[in-house]
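Notebook, bench 3.
Goal today: get a predicted structure for L-ascorbate oxidase-like from Glycine soja so we can plan the truncation constructs. The sequence was checked against the plasmid map this morning, with no discrepancies at the termini. Length recorded as 537 residues. Pasting the sequence as submitted so the record is complete.
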Amino acid sequence: MGCSVRVCCVLFLVLLVACVRGEDPYRFYTWNVTYGDIYPLGVKQQGILINWQFPGPQIEAVTNDNLIINVYNSLDEPFLLSWNGVLQRRNSWQDGVYGTNCPILPGHNFTYVLQVKDQIGSYFYYPSLAFHKAAGGYGGFKIASRPGIPVPFPTPAGDFTILAGDWYKRNHTDLRAILDGGSDLPFPDGIIINGRGSNAYTFTVDQGKTYRFRISNVGLTTSINFRIQGHKMTIVEVEGTHTLQNVYDSLDVHLGQTYSVLVTADQPPQDYLIVVTTRFTSQVLNATSIFRYSNSGGGVTGLFPWGPTIQVDWSLNQARSLRRNLTASGPRPNPQGSYHYGLINTTRTIRLQNSGPVINGKQRYAVNSVSFIPADTPLKLADYYKIQGVFSLGSIPDYPTGSGGYLQTSVMEADFRGFIEVVFENTEDTVESWHVDGHSFFVVGMDGGQWSSASRLNYNLRDTVSRSTVQVYPKSWTAIYMPLDNVGMWNVRSENWVHQYLGQQFYLRVYSPANSWRDEYPIPSNAIRCGKAVGHY
């Protein structure tokens, strides 16, 4: 199952050129994706493992590193990995979703070649096809600043990754069958932290020292709240943005989101609970881990540290309190505040309204009444080879239509270097979470009720955070400003994995007529062809 002679030659030439030119470092990974027995909630399940690990191996990179990740698919069905929040500049070919990549067939491999260009922060990777995420296959992904680039806090004594979220005891194939049959999923069975249930992990710290926790919600359907008994958390980074260092007792983390916080071990030496609970659910699920002082004098004491449960206003106010650190450096030495997003005129307004229509007797989810269905050929390949009959540009409107839901392979066209306003409108009774691949956007406003042009009067046009995933509260709206600075075919999706699987997604085709390597990399020499792209070279 080794790489082909052609692919190996390409990699050799890439490395040779890199050595001659003194380019950014290369990091190599070889991953074997298999099934294996896992027991997240104490019940034996079929999980998806990477190198026999769940969660999978952590990727640790530095800004501008080149990552060569060779993935062998030892499952019995096609597989892809995607990289949540990693921007893939000029390179949607490596995004790892079905709109851009043909799946890796069972018994085959594919080598991702990607660069974490001009990026820092905390992210995760995950399997993007066939509801595989419900079986695991995910892992942490962190990008450190280059040496010499100032970071606005002292180096922590330790760096911990928390991958938490809701979980089902049923195998992913059973859950997928429920969705394919036209029904929604039942309420989750529990919460897991780093692949395990309560008290399976212990994080050991030294008294008086400060530690970084990178917290990702990798769940399927619910927001979570994170807290550490008796300790304050200082937020320092949100998906690549250094923030003002606000202090919180607990933190809401919505589906697909990642936060970094600093925690100082400044309490009496003993064991404390790390707690994750569901948010905005009638039944509150929880899971715990242990925050242990190395000189601990005893176990956990005191009452269970309950946090917020269904309070939307509390969460909304916390979200509004997140601010960009204007004087701190990002991936480059210049201050984050040097980009004055609030002074740029928007070139277009797009309003996206989610809904849950029943279509042909089956539960579906939709954006502006369009429920996405995958084509037989990845959209990026069809676009590149100009294959007719796969998708149509403009197959999703810019505004809600109020019509009934319908099925469509929906692609929205957009111009490279545009600067757009997007308003996510949630008319449902549950929290929604939206992600845009290949882009980082500015969260300029959110509120309850109906958005109108007058809502712009309350936008934060000075120091909001930029990120790639944002929540929309029930019966509410969230507005973002987004520079279209990345040519490619990019997935815009719900991070509620049931909604995403049943159609609440579409693709944004950011187009440049220049056809230049300065705007977009050429198709990789090892790109897999499938569907109508078979035979095209």
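Helices lie at 5-21, 172-180, 312-321, 379-385, 497-501. The chain has three domains: 24-142, 156-319, 339-529.
Flagging this for group meeting.
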